[in-house]
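Feature request, filed as a ticket because there's no other form

It would be nice if the structure record came with a short human-readable summary line next to the C-alpha cells. Right now we just get the raw output. Example of a typical job, pasted below so the devs can see what we mean:
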Amino acid sequence: MGGMLALPPGQGPHQVGCTDVMVGHTRQGLFLRLFYPCLPRAGATEPLWVPRPEYCGGLADVTLGRRWCSALLGIAIGSCTVPVSWNGPLEPRSGGYPLIIFSHGLGAFRTLYSSICAELASWGFVVAALEHRDHSAATTYFCTAEAGREEWIPFQRVPRGQKEFYFRNKQDNLDLTKVAVMGHSFGGVTAVLALVKEPSFRCAVALDAWMFPLENLLYPEVPKPVLFINTEKFQTPESVAKMKRLSSRNSQTRIVTVLGTVHEDQTDFAFLPGKLFSLIFSRRGTLDPYKALAITSRAALAFLQRHLKLQEQFGQWDELLEGVGDSVAPDAPFGRSHL
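Raw output as currently delivered:
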C-alpha cells in the first residue's frame, strides 16, 4: 500500500534529514518533527508519514467523524513514507541555518505538512514542525517520567453551549525565540499571533490562515511583516478584511492567492490519489498539487530571504509576492469557508 501516497522530494540543493524531538515529561513539554539539510547516507531509511496507528484514529474522528474507520485508514495510508533520511547526519554549515517554526492546522499533527517542510529544508532551512498539546491536534501524546508510560491527548471539539471564538482563541499559544514562524489554517493565525507574543520572530508566513480566533485588539500590535498565501476556495470577506487591516499597518505584508486550490491543497493530503482524497474530503483543487507546492514554497522563500536578510538566490521569485505569475493572483477571491 506504500504507493497510495507519493510525497515529492525536496527540489532544493540539499538532501533532507528528519527526526522527532520530545522535551519534558508533561503536556507542557515540546514535541516536534525536525526537517534539516543532511549529508547523503547509504541505506537511509524513510520515516512513516503517519507515525503511529493512534493518529489514524484521531484523523478518522476529525475528518470523517467516524473513529471506527481508523483501521481502514491505517490500511490505506499506514505504510506510506516520507522521502527524507530518518536521523540522517546534519550537513555542517558555518554560521548555522535559519530556523522556521511550523504550526499545524486544527485537527492535524506534526507530519501532515511534510512536503512543504521538506521542500523548505532542501533550500537550506531547519524546519521545526510542532505538534500541539492543547487538544487542537487530531491526537498527540507525551511520555511521563515513569519509564515507558504514555498519555494521549485527543482532539477536542467546541463543547455544546460554548462560543467557538472564546474556545479557540485560548488555544495554540507559542512562546519560541527563533527566527521565523509559519503555519496553516489555525496554525496560520497562530503564526500571526506569535509575532505579537515573541519579539525574536522576524516575520510570519500564514498559509490559508483562519483569522477568526484573532482578537481585534491585537491588530495594531502585530509589528512584523506577514505573507498570507491563500487558496481560492477557503477565505471569507471577513477573514480577508482582517488580513487587509494588517497589510494597511505594515507595507511589507503581502496577500496572494494560489488559483485552482482548496484548503487541503496546502497539506500532504493533496498528494493522495483521487478516490482516497474524496473519501476523506469532499473536494480537491484543479491545480496540479506539485505546481501548487512549488508556488507556495517559492513565494515563502522569496519572502523569508527579504525579511531574514538571507544571502541566497530566492529573490528570483519576488514577483510571486505581488501576485504576478501563472496560477497566482494578488489579494484574495472569496469562497465558502470550510475548516
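Something like this underneath would help us a lot:
The chain has a mean pLDDT of 81.
The chain has one domain: 2-155+166-330.
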